[in-house]
Amino acid sequence: MTVGDGCLEAVRRINSRGSCAPHLSISFDSHLFSIDTSRAPKAALQPDAYLITHAHSDHYGKSAMLSQKAVASVQTARALEIRYDREYQGRTFHVGESITVDDVLVDTHPTGHTIGSNAFSWQNEGGERVLVTGDVKDYRHLPKCHFLIMEANYGDPYDPSCIFDDDLAGFSEALDARASFGAYAFGKAQRAVALMRAMGYKDEIGMDEKSLLLTSELMGEAAGPLEPVNGSGINVVTPWNLNMVRSRRKYFLTGRRDSTYPTIQLSDHLDFRGLMRMIEHVSPERVLVYHPQGPRAGLLAHHLQDCGLETTALDCIDRFVR
Ligand SMILES: [Zn+2]
Asked: How many angstroms does the Cα of residue 77 sit away from the middle of ligand 1?
């Protein structure tokens, strides 16, 4: 995809087997920024920076964190270290700061998806602003842009499960009933703890080891009192550890429909309507849907094309590097 006067271009990398690597780079002016991308092998073309939007595994920070060219927020870097037991090698920033990356002024914007998650934006020499969203729960802090590089986790316009509202009333009711909650250790667990505190729950929350470490380090005092899993108390544990707790009521905090436990809809993402409102908010001239893998990026790209917006998806990029 070539954007504007030709100096903004999206690039993918072919791996040694001839298939596409988990890779997206934006080539502009004399720079090459990789986005949520695994590290390039030594013999391959090297980017000037690996921008990491957050610490979920499908954004490849586990690999990129080992490059000195990694760029991630302080909390994302720390979350990667805790999750993968490796030392983060790149540089860090506080979300909201502007930083200079390879002589380019890059702005960072909170997205409310996980602790430390952020979008990146910068201008090329032609004055076009590129905005890379990562995964988004709250788009209100994102700037206007010319070229939007966005996610589509719930971007299928034909799938009813892509339209949802968080069930805060159900969550509050379950909390009052002293239920325990299944939540993935990074992201959903911190969202659950923050919501419990916002709803006025002040007592200990039991957590399994990784969830406890991530939540206490990343949330600090805002997490309130936490303790190892408490058989008779309120717990937030990874879903497969719900059998460790003795609460009478147990819920999996998810939008998924395949759980053996009853679920409460609580998402870290915008639904389809939210994604469309985000696009309106940042009012791009062109869009690249880059995430997740699978059909949803292409489905959203088709829908945006039908809406008259020049859009492509990662699978349709036809410029490759090795
Ligand atoms: Zn994510």
From this structure: 14
**Where are any strands of DSSP class E within 260-305?**
263-264, 286-291
Q: Which amino acid is at 206?
A: G
Q: Give alpha helix (H) positions in 199-236.
A: 209-219
Q: Is 60 left (phi over 0), alpha (psi -120 to 50) or beta?
A: left
Cα(59) to ligand 1 centroid in Å equals 7
Per-residue pLDDT tens digits for 127-160: 999 999 999 999 999 999 999 999 999 999 999 9
Q: 187 alpha carbon to ligand 1 midpoint, in Å? A: 8
If DSSP codes are grouped into helix, strand and coil, which group holds residue 158?
coil
Give the model confidence (pLDDT) of 43-65 as tens digits: 889 999 999 999 999 999 999 99
pLDDT in tens, 7-23: 799 999 988 888 888 89
C-alpha of residue 153 to centroid of ligand 1, in Å: 9
Cα(208) to centroid(ligand 1), Å: 21
Distance 60 CA to ligand 1 centre (A): 11
* Model pTM score: 0.95
Furthest C-alpha separation in the chain: 63
104 CA to centre of ligand 1 in angstroms:
26
